[in-house]
Design goal:
443 residues; 20 helices; 76% helix; 0% strand; globular
């Protein structure tokens, strides 16, 4: 019997939902100028508005993993998606007297709740991959999910700016995006299941292909207590490394439009395509990174080279790109350095998530993914707020120098990874594969 291909439908659905998730969160950045003007917000206050999302996002990413392990991925996906869709619509009225007449209080309330609703998305994505992907397709599935971040960031500019220009009102943009998200979640509810065994279009051959193709480290194991995460040097350092990826992502996603408008006087008619450029290369390098890591493992059969060395070199180059921005003499050079730094940073994204799946039993993937996200997502609060404060008091160049320094810090964290050790996580190696590596890393 030929295996069906329902798992690829699940992977594409995961990409669609994660893409919508990212566009919805990024929409505020392209209406930031209009909001700041309407409510008389300075850069520090605007940084706070952009950073409120991160407070909820940090909490949501942590809770989402626990909830998925307890109640099932599908239920948490649906509740989260429905909530963020409604809150996206409600953002249109965030500054009204309903919230005590304070625009800051209104945006704080809605953006924290919105961030909490969107927070579980990437822990749920990792949980989905652990259930649906055999080892030899895990890198492919991860790439589909992770490219949604870069593709979403790139598409946010033309979609949101297009809606603002078409309707002439940033409020209507939020309403349209929220309604579209509700429709997407309706599709999700009809197609997604927690496991291949529950899906009506998965035949016996595909179910066997998935379950037999998963290593013991993923397919077996009982749930571990959450504190076991912090006994693993590899998981903790990996989360600190992931911090830089998200810090850079949130810095560009929240402040890039405002920076381009303030420094180079781009209006919305130009911004919709110029703001896409820093994300364009990352859409490809996020896929390339997994291939490079696989190739290094195949060539040297050494996880320290495939994971540590690869991440360290990429983060060093990332830091140099952002620290060079203050020296650039033109808009083209600045945008080019942003694009290069973001593209190189995205290459390591696959490594962070692979580490979590490699060393974690399936029963704890959601929880440990959530903890990883929670640690890294401190950047979702710190990045927009610190960037706004730096821009207000020291200028935008200081924002980029600090970004480069943070990349250097994460480079040191990735040097300390011990990916060949399980550190008491009770993961049993699969016969025939060193260190219970996924097959894509050993073939």
């Amino acid at each position: 019997m030929k295996p069906t291909s329902a798992r690829y439908t699940i992977f594409l659905l995961m990409f669609l939902i994660a893409l919508i998730n990212y566009i919805d969160r990024g929409a505020l950045s392209f209406s930031a100028n209009a909001i700041a003007t309407e409510y008389h917000l300075n850069k520090t206050q605007l940084g706070a508005v952009l950073g409120y999302f991160g407070i909820g996002y940090l909490l949501g990413s942590l809770c989402g993993g626990f909830l998925a392990d307890r109640f099932g991925t599908r239920k948490v996906w649906l509740w989260a998606g429905l909530c963020w869709s409604v809150l996206e619509i409600a953002t249109a009225w965030a500054g009204m007297a309903l919230f005590g007449g304070s625009a800051l209080m209104g945006f704080a309330t809605l953006r924290i709740l919105f961030g909490f609703s969107e927070g579980p998305a990437y822990a749920l994505m990792n949980k989905t991959i652990s259930a649906w992907a055999p080892d030899n397709e895990r890198g492919f599935a991860l790439s589909i999910g992770l490219v949604s971040t870069q593709a979403g960031a790139m598409l946010t500019a033309p979609i949101t700016v297009g809606l603002i220009l078409l309707t002439g009102d940033w409020r209507i943009m939020f309403i349209i995006l929220g309604v579209f998200s509700l429709l997407a979640m309706l599709l999700f509810s009809r197609v997604y299941t927690d496991s291949p065994a529950q899906h009506p279009k998965v035949n016996t051959a595909e179910h066997a292909l998935i379950t037999r193709g998963q290593s013991a480290s993923v397919a077996e194991g009982t749930a571990l207590p959450w504190w076991k995460f912090f006994t693993s040097r590899t998981l903790v350092c990996n989360a600190l490394g992931y911090f830089t990826f998200l810090y850079i992502t949130f810095t560009l996603a929240t402040w890039l439009p405002k920076y381009l408008q303030d420094n180079f006087h781009y209006d919305l008619h130009t911004l919709w395509y110029v703001a896409m450029i820093p994300w364009s290369g990352a859409c490809f390098t996020v896929l390339l990174g997994g291939k490079i890591s696989d190739a290094l493992m195949k060539r040297f059969n050494n996880l320290r080279i495939a994971r540590n060395a690869f991440a360290v070199v990429a983060l060093l180059l990332t830091a140099l790109c952002f620290m060079a921005i203050p020296l650039a003499g033109s808009a083209a050079a600045v945008i080019g350095l942003m694009a290069a730094g973001n593209a190189i940073n995205a290459m390591v994204n696959n490594v962070y998530w692979s580490v979590v799946i490699d060393v974690t039993p399936k029963a704890s993937v959601g929880t440990f993914s959530g903890i990883t996200l929670a640690i890294a997502n401190i950047s979702s609060v710190l990045s927009p707020m610190l960037s706004g404060w730096l821009a207000q008091h020291s200028g935008y160049n200081a924002m980029f120098i600090v970004t480069g320094c943070i990349a250097l810090g994460s480079m040191l964290a990735m040097m300390a990874l011990q990916p060949e050790k399980k550190h008491g996580l009770s993961v049993r190696p699969q016969a025939g594969y060193p260190h219970a590596l996924p097959r894509s890393m050993t073939e």
